[in-house]
Amino acid sequence: MSKEHQVRAKKHLGQHFLTDESIAEKIANSLSYKGYKHLLEIGPGMGVLTKYLLKKDIITHVIEIDRESVEYLKNNYLNLADRIIEKDFLKYNLTEVFEEQPFAIIGNFPYNISSQILFKTLEMRHQIPEFSGMFQKEVALRICSKEGSKVYGILSVLTQAFYDAEYLFTVPPSVFNPPPKVDSGVLLLTRKENFKLPCDEKLFFRVVKTGFQQRRKTLRNSLNSFDLSDNLKSNLIFDKRPEQLSVQQFIALTQLIEKDH
Length: 261
Description:
alpha/beta; elongated; seven-stranded mixed β-sheet; two-stranded antiparallel sheet
């Protein structure tokens, strides 16, 4: 695969090829590989990360929508050929491959769909015990941030409700082709032992998303659409702004709203 194709394909797909072998190996080593037999790499491109995954005691699958990249992988990684999924990760029903089996996710994610990849992972959390990936640094830091931080938001709360999030390391633009204009960051998500919330999960998602849509307002104002009783709105938690609430406080808030309806 030519460098021209790399640039053309990844500009189209919003992704950048990682060229540094040591960083690829470091990402591959970030997972524990325990508690599951299958691994899915998203957007493998020319397989710089894939080659290290294939050395692990795990059944590696890759999902890639760029046809030339798929052909390259088929020709250069013969032992992977029957586990290449030529589909769009966001649109593909992964149970066709994994059924109900657990699997981990890993990848150098296209910046323009990285948040959507995370949201799909959260939807499939019952099957995904581990997740390691490269995001735009700013997004990776947001996902891992705690309450009180300026970047703490919807991604932080929804992810940390189900996973322990750890920012691992920063990756400079110089190790990509084409180089992005910003730093990248690799994070690790490890699913919590008890990842079922003690509240209505759909309501929890709605409370978090609605609260942060007007993050400068107090929750008393930003959650107006929930038609809450005056008695509930007198609770001191409604004096706070969304970024001041921990994940546990958002769960407690959801429980209060549940009881009010």
